[in-house]
TrEMBL record, chain A:
Recorded family membership: Belongs to the binding-protein-dependent transport system permease family.
Provenance organism: Novosphingobium jiangmenense
ABC transmembrane type-1 domain segment(s): 112-317
Superkingdom per UniProt: Bacteria
Span of the signal peptide: none
Name assigned to this protein: ABC transporter permease
From TrEMBL, chain B:
Naturally occurring in which organism (per UniProt): Novosphingobium jiangmenense
Keyword Calcium: no
CDD domains given in the database record: ABC_NikE_OppD_transporters (cd03257)
Subcellular location: Cell inner membrane
Keyword Disulfide bond: no
GO molecular function: ATP binding
Protein name: ABC transporter ATP-binding protein
Entries under PANTHER family matching the protein: ATPASE AAA-TYPE CORE DOMAIN-CONTAINING PROTEIN (PTHR43297:SF14), OLIGOPEPTIDE TRANSPORT ATP-BINDING PROTEIN APPD (PTHR43297)
Length: 331, 582
């Protein structure tokens, strides 16, 4: 994808030129993560009520609540708690879940693989499909195929996913009896069963994500197709397929990977509706439960995981865009 | 023997409208035909039709023959095999016609590779040979670079290499030097001419510039609105044009000195003293001083990157100066936009180069003009409408255009509206930044005359920025020549006409093509004596100066030589320079 360099000395200098730039991006991602941790910690402290109150219920006396607070360490100064918590996070120990009364790490490790699996399957299905739709649409601009795909992607973006999910259940589970309507994920299920139970959640998530990515891909490719260098390549006798692959794609890849990264980041946190409908044991529903039960350590850990994944995706997209762009590469 | 290229009754229509209407011509093998005309004349459309290509879904009919091949009857596969192999194209702007993400070598060798005419190694060897033939710097390694690392002139030559690498029978050159500085244009034209002759290709040269065409073409076809106006040998069309339209084109190409001398005030209205400016840490203007009286015109010339536009931006306050002062009628103007009063804004108006981007495309002409009227003069309703009508009359546009959307105007009309927008403020100083460079010669000449008239009638002081030395010479009372951000020469019109110039001004003058065949061959490309020498205090022009003195120019900053109405920075004495420019 990245332009080939035919000179002898150029490749090494190109890569060494990029390294500081990439290091800078990683550094700024880490700083962002630190700022987010402060924000997450502050905001979760602002939520009304705390775990002590929640555990003891409405009938508890203020003395009982205060005693439990002390026991849980909730009465220490905010800054101390923040530093403690951050240190724990850095070592991979985000504390104890106040409600489940077990380490947050265990609670999360039961759910995170499920979420990653769901997101992974969805990405595997949707990214190639979205790119194909976007590119096909762009190179047939104004044609029948483009208009049809346009209408389809537009309606897919507009339809709420709970509707897609419900319709999916109605058709595939109720009428056709092909797929289970509830996603039962367990470790001892066979791969086939896992795939079957994930099929409907993946379908519901894919519909929206594919539509978003396809539209962004179409825009990025169409924008490049209007450039004079495309006409020039055609006038050199370069076949259209080759023009798209070797001339347009290296220039369109930057905007496309950014669109893909944004869409994929939605697959973890944004999967809440799908997780709820299919009773899927994922991270998003865990986080919502943590909010309702005032389980701050769990809530904070979930928020940090979502944020870290989001930043990683954006970072990868940035690096790909830098590598694809000789101007940035040569800085 | 029949002609190598023959076009018979070519018609190209788009949306039911004929862009090209019944054009026929023939070219003998190895000859160069020039297609000339203004924008919209269909010259590029015809050139592209020879490759079976049309833009915006236009349809081509008529006969197009190349050798024994009927290009108009080829299918897509046939066209693909033709393009880049038998017919090659050199685009107007190499900067945008090269793919920014791929190396030059990958793009230059691509025609050979896609047509399977050579393997990768042989293709690269041929490319390097062509780079050498086109006098490109470091031909061995230039291919590993990316387009953004090269200059416009280099890219244009590389594009010629890309076209010639398959040794095509026909080369189409579409305004290949229009985007270049005159000094670069000479070198590029020379390189093209030699390279095309060495391949033995037939060529079609598309241009609006008659003087350039005179250097390149054996025969000329004059087009206007898709129709042939005149066709004949280059010599005949240029020196004994039979058609009225051709004569109009010729007239516009040679700016004539303005008829009435300007009524120039005595006191300086705009005074710029010791101004420095920089973009970040890169200095772009060094120690510029000038003074301009009411009703006077100052021409600022120089190549791209010389700091001409920056000077206008500094005076207008768009770029805050880093040192020096700018004063208007004795009152110092604040550095940037902040701190300037509305009255100060009103008195200095800037007319941007590109009216297409300077005017808001969703506004009507009336709205575009009413905005400054309301802002500076508080005019509303009927009073504003009357003023808009007066302004339109001033710029010679019919009053009914006020309701027209800006997008619906032609290029020349837009530039007039752009000018009227500045005039609406009733400015005392008008800064015109390359206002005619995006326009056709005929339209540009009309805009120039309009600016000159307005200046005389309204007594506006004008700073006229241009890269065209003949226009500046014809229109301006004073001339400022910028090189690398330094004023290398400053003169009043009379002194400028006497022929004593800074070596850089001479280079600019010598580079303007003359309308006679053979000029290009005689044009001096005097080599720099001390190429590569540069220093912050030394003469900025030293690395390119053909008459530099070793041991002096590369040792000490150039002294200021001043004579009757003339001042320039050079180690040579004024009377020595007189002999050099002759």
């Amino acid at each position: 994808m990245v332009g080939r360099v035919s000179g002898g000395a150029a490749p090494r200098s190109a890569i060494s030129g990029v390294l500081p730039l990439i290091a800078k991006r990683i550094g700024s991602a880490l700083v962002t993560l630190l700022l987010v941790s402060a924000v997450v910690f502050t905001i979760s402290g602002l939520l009304p009520g705390d775990a002590a109150q929640e555990t003891l219920g409405q009938s508890a006396t203020p003395e009982q609540v205060a005693a439990l607070r002390h026991e849980m360490g909730l009465d220490r100064p905010a800054l101390t708690r923040y530093v403690d918590w951050l240190g724990g996070m850095a070592q991979g120990d985000p504390g104890r879940s106040l409600v489940a009364n077990m380490p947050v790490r265990e609670v999360i490790s039961a759910r995170l693989p499920n979420s990653l699996m769901l997101a992974g399957f969805t990405a595997l299905v949707s990214v190639p499909l979205a790119l194909a739709i976007g590119i096909a649409s762009a190179i047939n601009r104004g044609g029948r195929l483009d208009r049809t795909l346009n209408v389809l992607t537009l309606s897919a973006v507009a339809v709420p996913e709970f509707l897609v999910a419900t319709l999916g259940v109605l058709v595939f589970s109720v009428k056709l009896l092909w797929l289970p309507s509830i996603a039962l994920v367990s470790e001892d299920a066979s791969l086939w069963d896992t795939l079957r139970s994930c099929a409907l959640p993946v379908l519901s998530l894919s519909v929206v994500v594919i539509a978003q990515m396809a539209r962004m891909t179409r825009a990025a490719v169409a924008d490049q197709l209007d450039r004079p260098y495309v006409e020039m390549a055609r006038l050199k006798g370069v076949p259209f397929r080759r023009v798209v692959l070797f001339h347009v794609m290296p220039n369109a890849v930057g905007p496309i990977v950014n669109a893909v990264a944004l869409s994929l980041s939605y697959l973890l946190g944004g999967a809440i509706i799908v997780e709820t409908i299919f009773n899927f044991p994922g991270l998003a529903s865990l986080m919502v439960n943590a909010v309702t039960s005032r389980d701050m350590p769990l809530l904070q850990a979930c928020a940090m995981i979502f944020c870290a994944i989001y930043l990683t995706l954006v970072l990868v997209a940035d690096v790909v865009a830098i590598l694809a762009n000789p101007r940035l590469r040569a800085q | 023997m029949s002609a190598h290229v023959a076009v018979k009754d070519l018609r190209i229509t788009a949306g039911g409208k004929a862009i090209v209407d019944g054009v026929s011509f023939e070219i003998e093998r190895g000859q160069v035909l020039a297609l000339i005309g203004e924008s919209g004349s269909g010259k590029t459309t015809i050139a592209l039709a020879l490759m079976g290509h049309s833009r915006f879904g236009a349809t081509i009919s008529g006969e197009v023959r190349l050798g024994e091949t009927r290009v108009d009857r080829l299918d897509d596969a046939g066209l693909q095999a033709l393009r880049g192999r038998r017919v090659a194209y050199v685009a107007q702007s190499a900067a945008s016609a090269f793919n920014p993400s791929r190396t030059i070598m990958a793009q230059v060798t691509e025609p050979l590779l896609v047509h399977r005419l050579a393997g990768k190694e042989e293709a690269e060897a041929r490319a390097v040979d062509l780079f050498r033939a086109l006098a490109l710097p470091s031909p061995e390694t230039i291919g590993a670079r990316y387009p953004h690392q090269l200059s416009g002139g280099q890219l244009q030559r590389l594009m010629a290499a890309m076209a010639l690498i398959t040794r095509p029978e026909l080369v189409i050159l579409d305004e290949p030097t229009t985007a270049l500085d005159v000094t670069t244009q000479v070198e590029v034209l020379k390189a093209f001419k030699v390279a095309i002759a060495s391949v033995g290709a037939t060529a079609i040269y598309v241009s609006h510039d008659l003087a350039v065409v005179a250097q390149m073409a054996d025969s000329i076809l004059v087009l206007n609105q898709g129709r042939t106006r005149e066709q004949g040998a280059a010599e005949q069309v240029l020196h004994a044009p039979a058609d009225d339209y051709t004569r109009t084109l010729m007239g516009a190409a040679r700016p004539h000195a303005r008829s009435a001398p300007a009524v120039v005030g005595k006191e300086a209205l705009l005074k710029v003293e010791g101004v420095h400016a920089a973009y970040g840490k890169v200095p772009v203007l060094r120690d510029i001083s000038l003074s301009l009286a009411k009703g006077a015109t100052l021409g600022v010339i120089g190549e791209s990157g010389s700091g001409k536009s920056t000077l206008a931006r500094v005076i207008a306050g768009l770029l805050p100066r880093s040192a020096g002062s700018v004063s208007l009628a004795g009152e110092e103007l604040p550095k940037g936009l902040e701190g300037r009063s509305r009255e100060q804004f009103r008195r200095v108006q800037l007319v941007f180069q590109n009216a297409d981007t300077a005017l808001n495309p969703v506004q009507t002409v009336g709205q575009a003009l009413a905005r400054p009227l309301a802002f500076y003069h508080g005019l509303k309703g009927a009073a504003a409408e009357a003023e808009v009508a007066r302004l339109l009359d001033l710029i010679r546009l019919p009053a009914h255009l006020a309701t027209r959307n800006v997008r619906q105007l032609s290029g020349g009309q837009k530039q007039r509206v752009n000018l009227a927008r500045a005039l609406a403020a009733r400015p005392e100083v008008l800064l015109c930044d390359e206002v005619t460079s995006a326009l056709d010669t005929v339209v540009g000449a009309a805009i120039l005359e309009l600016i000159d008239e307005l200046r005389r009638e309204l007594g506006i002081a004008t700073v006229f920025i241009s890269h065209d030395i003949s226009t500046v010479r014809a229109f301006c009372d004073q001339v400022l020549v910028l090189y690398g951000g330094t004023a290398v020469e400053q003169a009043d019109a009379a002194a400028f006409g006497r022929g004593v110039h800074h070596p850089y001004t001479d280079l600019l003058t010598d580079s303007v093509p003359e309308m006679r065949a053979g000029w290009l061959e005689q044009a001096r490309t005097r080599k720099a004596v001390l190429a590569g020498e540069s220093g912050d205090d030394l003469c900025r022009f030293l690395p390119r100066c053909p008459v530099a003195i070793a041991g002096t120019c590369n040792a000490a900053p150039p002294p200021l030589r001043s004579g009757d109405g003339l001042a320039l920075l050079c180690h040579h004495e004024l009377h020595d320079l007189e002999g050099m420019s002759a």
